[in-house]
Amino acid sequence: MGNLKKYMPITYVTMLIGSLALIGMPFLSGFYSKEAIIEVEHFSKLSASSYAYVCVLIGVFFTALYSFRLFFMVFHTKERMDEHTRSNLKESPWVVTLPLIALAIPSVVVGYWLAPTILSGEYFADAIRVLPIHDTVAPLVEHYEHPFTLALDAVQTLPFWLAMAGVATAYVFVVWKPELSDKTKKLLGPINHVLENKYYFDHIYINYFSAGGVALGKQFWEIDRCKTDRYLDG
Prior knowledge:
2 domains, mainly alpha, single chain, 11 helices
């Protein structure tokens, strides 16, 4: 509907915290888990680790892009609702607002709190076993003795700036120059059509796999019905 920041301030703040945590903003919970994954791939010597590292870097950009495209579109664009909808807009009731706040608080503090045990491997010690030869987390822990240092140094890393680029791109296309979105769609042409149709997976599944399963079920039902009729007649 656009401009919901004006009508739902608590939802706005909690959504902002959640979005920042999701894209791995330093000091928030999502940062420590994502930073560990990215750095492990970066320093790993296993085959295909370089490919995995590039993939997660691409994911960093697009995660920030789609997360803040949603955030900006909902809270920072022009209002797109009728007067009746506008007159009824208000903050969510407590059964929704309270869980939002309850989730936002650990999104801010839990990563910083658990980072030492997670990065050292102690948190998952009984669930995940890492052979010493493949332990690429240990050098990370030795270099960053404190979660504050790890988060502070993150502003110098490529993942951080890719995330910021994703946020900036979302802002430009949604808030500052929304007309660029339509121009980009036209420029991409068939590629955009394929993306909007989700690579046609839904179409293929519904019209072939699902429809084929229904047709096969009907065929079996018809065979069973014929056998039943012959049994009753005989």
